Amino acid sequence: MEYSAINVTPLTPGIGGIVSGVDLTRPLSNVEVEDLHRALEDRLVIFFRDQPIDHEAHKRFAHYFGGIHIAPSTKPWQAPGHPEVTIIHADADSTFVAGEDWHSDMSCDAEPPLGSVLYLHTVPPVGGDTAFSNMYAAYEALSERMKAHLEGLNAVHDAAVGFGGITPDGMTLPRSSHPVIRTHPTTGRKAIYVNKGFTTHIEGIPRAESDALLGYLFNHVQHPIFQCRFSWQAHSIAFWDNRCAQHSAIWDYFPQTRSGFRVQILGDVPH
After folding, report:
1. Is the pTM of this model over 0.70?
2. What is the domain extent for residue 229?
């Protein structure tokens, strides 16, 4: 794909692209925004280097793609004075890290976020990569019999799973039902939409059958042929489409520090 105002270098044939030629610390032109929309649609996740953004620039970038999604369950980790910004931090005192299992961000919400923009200002000297997997490709690799079997099924996504049973005081964690196979509202392509991080069971079938199907799909989406892996540097940004990509944060850097901020973009009800 050719672009007018940016350059995009594919990370793998099927997913991921490194964007250059754009400065996210300043407002973007209409042409740059149009190119970035096309790049996200084509690559599913796009990456930027050397972008020392502040909270205002972070939110401004997200707004080029829609309103900002504020998940109620992330309230304890909101940046002071910026409820739209979630603190993502791990260090020698951490007992877990956000997003360590394969997942699509906040799929437990009734209207999960369209995408997530993660900025890291501090990274370990080695390790701390994030892996991403293409859910279009994972769906297309299924047999026709399996596609037909999954079509029309819904699955429950529960925040209590994603947050490891940690419930902030006085908070009710969201729980929602979504199609096992969803259709992307922009591209019209079908994608697998169950994930190990949030999905508990498929509705309307015996639990043993549900466990078997989900176990198969959870393993299937992790196949290396669907993946790319991003090695972070300080002041890098990753922006991914939660509707057609899953990701997993690799916690191989303990006790080093990995720290930054995430902003999420409003999505829609999966269909």
Report:
1. yes
2. 7-265
